[in-house]
Design brief:
mainly alpha; di-copper center containing domain from catechol oxidase; 13 helices; binds the ligand N[C@@H](CC1=CC(=O)C(=O)C=C1)C(=O)O
Amino acid sequence: MKTLRNPPLYPRNPLRHMDHAARFNYVTRALMFLAFAIGVLLIGGVALKYATPGLVWKFTPPRLSSTAAHYRHVRVVGAKTGINSETGSAPPRLELSEFMNSAEGVDLYLQCHLELLNKNASDKLSFYQIAAIHGGPYQAWDGVTGNVTFPSGYATHRSVLFPVWHRPYLALFEQIISGCAVKLAKEYDEDVRKAYEDAASVLRIPYWDWAAKPWLPAIVAQPFRTVRTPKGLANITNPLHQFTFPEGTVDGLRAAAAIHKEDPIIWTTGATMRCPQLADHNGTVSDQLGTLNTTLRTYQLFTELDGDYEHFASIGYWDVHHRISLENVHNSVHLAVGTEMTIEEGAEWARSRLCGHMGSDFASFDPLFFLHHANIDRIFALWQAVFPDSYVTPRISDLGTYLRPANLTDNIDTPLQPFFGEDGKTPYTAATARNISTFGYTYLELMDLTMSPPELSEHVLRIISSLYSEKKS
Ligand SMILES: N[C@@H](CC1=CC(=O)C(=O)C=C1)C(=O)O
């Protein structure tokens, strides 16, 4: 046995100065006491729980909350390149066929769009998650949660906020594409790099003007496209054709679709579809689009509603005007692409069978959605220029969203969740998303910043008339 020489009177670590047996005894007793104490606590707890059945037992583990004061949300600021620092003039979003005239712009846009599509579904800036903001599969994005568990996306429909909610949504998509394009342009060989950098700086998302061209644009039906990449010519998957759902996501999507009893047909191929069970589906979609009178109905938005914002914005009013609200024209385009329509007596058409995602609560997964909504945003922006004093007035929406129960009054200060501005803390509202200049883009019709509001109003009306009136003056 080891003898301890001169043990201190008050040892700091008493175990050091004990012999083996004493140390064993000491530790064992301490452990036994601890086990006893834990046992008493457990048994006491369980007994108490059964003795008080009415009591709700809650244990909330501490966690890093995304709503905590320190958390900054994704900042939705739009594309910020190519803006004239003196005049503030921003690059325009172009009509698709005009957009196609810039070979460099198209090369960058298609590659960046494809990159977004291919990003991992767990990345909040992937196409999958961006698309999931709008409707199904009814999941939180960027930690923006509330108390409502309503099977809906964040998007507002049947509400005065319908046009304006989609504005920051598109700006988010646009800023991701733009950020990618600026980086990608730098990778091109020196002889063409400047052309690509210039194209990247003015790159904005294109729009599909189904009011002037009520048919499916050829490019969205092509499975592949040849583009010039920094490494040379390449045949790439065309991102505008369809979105292939990332592995492991389809079951969840299908389950979410089942909540609303949506037809499971659209979940059979693992990719978005547009009425594929029809022999010539792109042709059929175009035929259906041709029956909608989108040209006249778009014109009427400007000429028949007396500048009444509520009628313009939403389908909430089921009166004589309901066919000429922006949301209604928009709905019919969704349905022409995503359902098989039947012509019924008394109605120009009636929805019959879901056969594509665009007609469903999963519409935003079809890349065509963003081209379609860019046109909705454009019509909205033009309408704002024609009627600058008409805007969101408080109105009840009978449809809830992921965060808002149904039958609440939407107004100019209702947060447009989950979109936050420059500080990553303040959600957009209809007040702060009113002007497109906030998001770094414009439309050709609104380019002239020297006009007074009345001049601009007349100017835009003339263009609307030349594009969409029967006379096309
Ligand atoms: N649910 C709309 C159509 C529709 C509108 C959307 O906004 C959408 O994302 C998908 C579909 C209707 O039946 O009229």
